[in-house]
């Protein structure tokens, strides 16, 4: 099955799920938005901690003349957690207003 056909079917299914879902109450919506914002904050904190840890470990192991860059694994974890939280917020808002 071609990729375009899979994407079209996925979008069709997403629209169907959104159209059949119930609208959340304002209290539920506010609670979920606060939780999703907390996830975004936590992703940022994790990203910051990885960066600071990398700076200190690099300086300790290699001396102060090195550049400060994240390892590929640290970058992947930070980006994946940030993107996951952002997509969760966007999907929930799309369902709320869809």
UniProtKB/TrEMBL annotation:
Highest taxon in the source lineage: Archaea
Q: Decide whether keyword Transmembrane is in the record.
A: yes
Q: Does the keyword Membrane apply?
A: yes
InterPro entries (alphabetical) = Prot_translocase_SecE_dom_sf
The protein's UniProt keywords, in alphabetical order, are: Membrane, Transmembrane, Transmembrane helix
Q: Where does the sequence pass through the membrane? A: 35-56, 76-95
Name of this chain's protein:
Sec translocase gamma subunit, Sec61gamma
- Species: Thermoproteus tenax (strain ATCC 35583 / DSM 2078 / JCM 9277 / NBRC 100435 / Kra 1)
Gene assigned in the entry: secE
